Every structure is written in structure tokens, then in C-alpha cells.
Amino acid sequence: MARCRLDCRVTAGLLLFAVLLVACGVPTPSGPATFSGELAYPWVTLQCDLGYRITGTEANRQAGDMIIEELRAQGWEVYEQTFTYKDTPVRNILAWKGEAADGGDAILIGAHYDTRRSADEEDPSQPVMGANDGASGVAVLLELARSLAWDTESRRIYLAFFDAEDNGRLDGWDWIVGSSYMAAHWGEAGESPLEAMILVDMIGDADQQVYYERNSDPGLSQALWGIAGQLGYAERIIPDYKYAMLDDHIPFARMGVRAVDMIDFDYPYWHTTQDTPDKVSAESLEVIGRTLEVWLESRE
Ligand SMILES: [Zn+2]
């Protein structure tokens, strides 16, 4: 009986807490699991432990295989989109779950998993480890794959892992090769029309500052930054414009999809040999992951 009374009091307390949260308008993840930065961070080190994930290399192949294995373990369907670019094999990975009801549109969350093969400003002979530039976005997507919960009978969500993003200007390579290919061929393998696309890139810096990006959809940016503000992240997810980026959201924006790039371009180790896991924090991954989680799970 004592135990029961205690439980009742705890339950009543939790209910009151929940009511207060609702009354204050604080968004909370609605699914049974919650995005955890502590669970996301090991995906950064696991990728870096494989070595430099440069397009066409063994470490890149292993990273792709690891991503696919985890997605399948979390119950996602997976499609490997392969093609050749400048005699180099390229593989995009596209995962999805759920069905869009009544022909409704789907949402795509993306990140690139390849890393740059030259630390060009610093030492062109050395590659970039890409703990933040690549691995951080992948880590957020893989933890979302575990923690996201939504009405899968009414909405489809895609997770895209782009290859060949980051060798631009090297030996005549373009930037955003993988995402350009995926956007150009969207729908050919039965992919659903897209309502929105959100890219996460370089979002793991322990000293995190994510500004509005000028080539992103303004309304969707305001919605995401607004949720971040409600979650208490306004000092990190800052609702001011700063940079314009050529990144993997551009090919989807050109298709007419509302697209947003969540990127922290104030990263001193960008394209240097110092872009290593010690610069990335679990807390920063959680800020991005929770923002996306609340936005995705609060949609009808
Ligand atoms: Zn890069």
C-alpha cells in the first residue's frame, strides 16, 4: 500500500509536470525513445576508427556498410544507389520508414559520409579525418534512426547518406556529387515526392554556432530555429543570417523542395588535419538531434 501511495504521488507529480510543460509551451519528443547525444557520439569515433572515408576507398566502403547494417538493425528499408564518377565508384545510401497517407509527401534528412582527401589550406598531401565534416551528421542520422517514433502509417521519412560531397576542386571534381545524383534521379526507384529536405553538416563542434543559411528555405528555417529556441538552444542555434553554402541541400532546393542546411561554418578545423573526434561533443549532437526529433515527431 505504501508503495502504491508513493507511486500515485509520483504519477500525480509527473502529470502535474507534464501539464506545466504543456502550459509553458515547451516542446518535448513524443516518441518512446529520446535522442541521446551520448549514444550518438560513438558513431563519430566508429567512423573515424575506420580511417579516411574518401570516396572510392576501402574505409569509405566500410563506413557505408556500417551505416547500412545499423539502419537495417533499426528496422529501416535501405536502398544503395551506386554510380561511377571520374572512374571512381560512388554509393549513396537511402533509408526509409513509413508510408505517406493519401499521397502525402515525405521528408528527407540528409548528411554526407565521405571525407575530403586533401587538407588543402594546410597540407594538400594529408587527408581530412572529418570527425565534424561528415561523421557528425552521420552520427545524428543514425541516432535518429534509433530514437525517432512517429505515425508511420501517415508519413514516410527518408534518411540519406551522401557520398562524394567533399572532394570539390580536387583534380577537377565537383562538390555535392552524390546528392546531385540522388536529386536528379529522385522518383525513379519509386521514391515519394518530398515535402521538405533538411541537411545536417558540421554540426558537432563543441563550440557550436548554427546560423540561418542564406540558400535555405526561410520559413522552414524559422520553424526549426524556433523549436531549438523553445528547447533552450538559442545560444547555439542562432536565428540570424551569416553564411551562404554550396552544400547537399542545393540540388533538392533546385528541384523545388523546401530545403534547409543546418551547418556550423564557424569551425576553425574545417578541412584541416585537426578535424578529429576530440573537437566534437555529444552535447552538440544532441542539440541538433533533439531539434530535428521534436520537429519530425510534432508533425501531423
Ligand atoms: Zn567539407
Describe the fold and architecture.
The strands form 2 sheets. This protein has a 6-stranded mixed beta sheet with strand order 1-2-4-3-5-8, sandwiched between helices. The model is unreliable at 1-24 (pLDDT under 50). It is of the alpha/beta class. It has 8 helices and 8 strands; from the N terminus they run H-H-H-E-E-E-H-E-H-E-E-H-E-H-E-H. The chain has 2 domains: 1-27; 31-297, Aminopeptidase. The longest helix is centred in the N-terminal third of the chain and has 23 residues, at 2-24. 37% of the residues lie in helices and 19% in strands. The structure holds zinc ion. Zinc ion binds next to loops.
Overall form:
globular
Report the CATH architecture of the largest domain: 3-Layer(aba) Sandwich
Strand content: 15-25%
Quickly count the helices: 8
Number of domain units:
2
- For CATH, the homologous superfamily of the largest domain is named as Zn peptidases
Helix content: 25-40%
Ligands? zinc ion
The gyration radius over C-alpha positions equals 20 Å
Distance between the termini: 41 Å
Number of strands: 8
Q: Are there runs of 5+ residues with pLDDT below 50, and where?
A: 1-24
Mean pLDDT: 91
Please state how the strands of the largest beta sheet are arranged side by side: 1-2-4-3-5-8
State the major sheet. 6 strands, mixed
CATH class of the largest domain: Alpha Beta
Helix/strand order, N-terminal first: HHHEEEHEHEEHEHEH
Q: Could you say what the CATH topology of the largest domain is called?
A: Aminopeptidase
